[in-house]
Task: structure prediction
Amino acid sequence: MTQTEIFEANLDLTLHSQAVLELLNAYAADPMGVGKPLTQDVLKELIPGLQHHPTTIIFIAFHDNKAAGIVTCFKGFSTFQARPMINISDFYLHPDYRGLKIGQRLLAIVEKKAIELSCCKITLEIQENNIRAMQIYKAAGFNQDVHVKEVGRAVLFSKPLSK
Result:
């Protein structure tokens, strides 16, 4: 019988930190990530950076004791609601484990954590052509954000900065 277990990551545990590196590197290499693996410098600095960032929240799914999925979140704050919120930065399921409802379980755990932290919402960004993930998010109650209907839907912009 196959078994899936989900843990809030403890990055002091080698098993968890290795799973985070493995899954985030696979996600980065995926076309829905950035299409190439993480650099050695990023891999070296990632765990210490996550450990020192005060709002990091990570959940890892293991299926039959193998790293299967990850959701990396950061706690933020909504000025319009004067309450904390959670932003999902990374959400990835290894292709071998898709279709097993692990993604839904990860999203449910993030929602449970957000409720425990009295958050007003959970936010995320998604590539517009990632239809499979969009279906999972919509089934979990996510929609494109609209603050004022007459003004239109929210759109995410970013501006990369050099080191």
Summary: The helical segments are 14-29, 40-52, 102-116, 131-139. The beta strands are 4-8, 56-63, 66-78, 83-93, 122-124.
